[in-house]
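Checklist before submission:
- one chain only
- standard amino acids only
- sequence pasted in full

Submission:
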Amino acid sequence: MDAKTLLTLEFDKVREKLAALTAFVPSRELALALTPSTNFHTARQWLDETREARLLLETEPHTSIGGGRDIRSLAVSASKGIILIPADLLDIKFTLIAARSLSRQLERAEATYPFLSEIALGLPAPMGLVDAISSTVSDRGEILDTASPKLGQVRGQLRIVHDRLLDKMQKLLNNKAIAPYLQESLVTQRDGRYVIPIKAESRGRVKAVVHDVSSSGATLFVEPIQVVDLNNEYRQLQAEEKEEERRILAELSYRLGQHAAELTAAVNTLAALDLVFAKAKYAEDLEAIQPKLIRFHKPKDGVNPNLTLKLWQARHPLLDQKTVVPIDVETDPETYILLITGPNTGGKTVTLKTVGLLACMAQAGMHIPAAEGSEITMFKNIYADIGDEQSIEQSLSTFSGHITNIIQILDKAGQNTLVILDELGAGTDPQEGAALAQAILTYLVDAGIPTLVATHYPELKAYAHSTPGVVNASMAFDMETLRPTYHLTIGLPGRSNALHIAERLGLRQEIIQFARAKINPRDLKADDLLDEIHRQRDLAQIARAEAEHSRRQAEELRTELANRLENIEDERLAVLAKAQDYAQQEIEDLQEELRKVRRNLAQARQPLDVVDEIETAVETIEEKIEKPKPRKQVTRELPTPVMQRPIRLGDKVKLRTLGQEGVVSSLGEEQAEIMVGNLRVRVDLYDLELIGGQVQEKPRVEIATEAANFRTPSPGVELPLRGLTVDEALERLDHYLDRAYISGLPYARLVHGKGTGKLRDAVRKAVKNHPYVDRFEPGSRNEGGDGVTIVHLVKN
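Returned file contents:
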């Protein structure tokens, strides 16, 4: 990838932010040296690694490289026979422990994180080094007594001699023959030997060896003759201890040196994993998504490079993500050059840098700050000419600097590269600059080189409109506030705002009118028409948003009223059932009383005719009570919207904003190309009204009049699953689909969110083979995109 372009697009600043999220020096070095890959499989694998790392850090937030250190230099030193100190051994130990823990963690979850597990294969297998270091050095960096039998023996003797020596020194301090000559009653050390301080004038009064004199000369530090042998023995044991410690460290260092390659590989693998973790953290900070990389295919016929550029809600990663204005950048299959016009400080340069920088990030395995569904072609190289190229050292003007860059770019660019040119042809005579800019664009068009261009020249707007493969785009400007909105509009060129701005700022009218008279009337008419198109487009977008809001409110109202009608009928049946139970109980009590009367009359040998008549009347009443109460017919008089079938190629449609009729000649996911007479117009689908294709839904929906036809109340067309675990979500989903199927819902909207995609994948896997689901599909952009799954239920 071109190094100068990476610097121009500020990819180095992205690398610095990435490096700040790494855990140790080796991974920081990798982050600062990261460059976009030009290999399709490598770049796609890097993106998948970042996706897995985001999922891993979401499910196990404490995952990291632990106490990993950069031990590469220590491994080299050990391999050369250099003895390592205990602190170095601890660094190696903690690094190997971090490698072992991460390796085991990814090995257990290999099915979930295959790409991360593949990286972890570079971590060394256990070599016994951790146990060897642990049995030699404590966590405080001290060599253990158990490091060798000899060391334990020497240290045991050393403690005994030390205790005897101090005990004897203490007795000398308390000796009445020596006490008067002491400067202080204490035991100290000089050159590793234990001594006591005596007064200088008492020299010769105490039999001792002088080892030191105080700075004032008033105190002598002497070793009494009585402890010379013990001090000698103590020093000898200390020397033996040091020699044994050195032998132990040398032996262990030699063993580590034999595994220097494995130790270096462990550090490099930990650094690679930490770099992926840093990419995942950066993606979370940016609320980024994994873009879809499209492989470049050399065109068989013609020069169209089949550029794919779909960036939804794209944001520059180095700007404040809370205030930056997102942009939508999309080219159709026939377009590979985007010409952006608009006012100064309107966002043209930021737009160019955003597209170029996001392309670099995607090819470097980094998720990009954009919305789901974003796609971009894989480029072999990216070349950019942005900013002031003036050079005092090389005696180059701004114009010369730009032309020098462009010459180099045209020599290298091809159909599988992306060229970004800011202010093409600027810095010279406007007429010559416009002509040169048009000539350069023509060369790029003929060569089929994907290009993004920003310019001020109005001549290029007409060129883009009439040249296949080129499309106009513009940065919007608010004439009320006289400020740019930073919104990118594709398909329409930018308007000339100079006279409008001057007029709004209070420039004299006679000057405005004089300037207007100097402009070609056709240009003024074109600007007025462009103003009207922009205005109608804005109105159409507002109308569409209001219509969508009204539609949702109406749907919510319909659902609420339907539920209320269902509840009223259920309450009616419940009241009737309660009354029926009460009457039944009364009948049973009356029958029991009649049986008692019959028994009493029979015992008294009295006639039973009257009782028989009463029992017959009671049975008649009981039959009436037990007769089932039919479910009352309820008619829902609810208005239903007029629907229209999807627009197809060849349909006759009406353009709402222009009030014209035409025929659909080309159809995309969100836009269509309409032939209005001899004029070809590209418009959004929501701006089209199908002529003769309306379908009227049935205006009345009736609840069945018989209990056998009763449906379970609808659970609603939307099931929220965000915030649930996978198990909780699947349990709620299964219960919901049962109710939705029984109630006769035709479709349902499952809201699981985007996140890492784990919940989304689990939900779609569950509905894929569900007996009640006919088919499913992701939600459209205005329905929530990939954060929503629409399921179409089997008709029952």
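Reviewer check: The radius of gyration is 43 Å.
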